[in-house]
Task: structure prediction
Amino acid sequence: MRIYEVKDYQEMSRKAANILAAQVILKPDCVLGLATGSTPIGAYDALVEKYENGDLDFSEVKTVNLDEYKGLTRENDQSYYYFMHEHLFDRVNIKLENTNVPDGTEADGAKECARYEALIASMGGVDIQLLGLGRNGHIGFNEPADHFEKMTHCVDLAESTIEANKRFFASADDVPRQAYTMGIGTIMKAKKILLIVNGEDKADALAKVLRGPVTPKVQGSILQLHQDVVVVADQAALSKM
Ligand code: F6R
Result:
């Protein structure tokens, strides 16, 4: 595991974008595993800038997103489909048929999760998976539990996650209670993982993820067992190390 300590959010975003850009340059038809939330927005902006400068070509790139709220339509501005279009897909020359987000409108969870898992396998797996970190140590929407879920599955969101994400909704009651998410096994199959973390409110979680016991109570701690993880975190997020 390689840990880069950076000054702040801006530096984290630039470094993360450089790592993702290197992947795209080295393998133009790579599969990028992408994340949503507030953490990667700056990295997506930096990727768009590289594209606009003529330094990056997304025409052959394929993407799979980590997760999606169950029940939200693509048009809902809180869906992760909408987020990805707003922050990245509509701003670069990626082919929309090469982008994939779990379908939150599919009511049959088992069917959608099986479809998504098979889709990732059919693409040859993920070359680099971008991850943010939940304050409870979650990655994707793999919430603290007694075990690690292997495959893409439907999850009941933890109260702390609903609380953390309500800032994006009119009220906590509007936050969906369920989501489809890649499982820990799905994430761990990625050839490379890029974890980005900023802010003091993530410091406890990050210390547990990087140095604590590997436990499903802190789902991100499983990353200690992956062979190729790069962490880019700011000083505040690393302050409890
Ligand atoms: C998003 C995701 C989540 C977030 C995490 C951190 O696709 O899977 O695990 O990465 O909740 O969210 P932010 O970045 O909003 O603090």
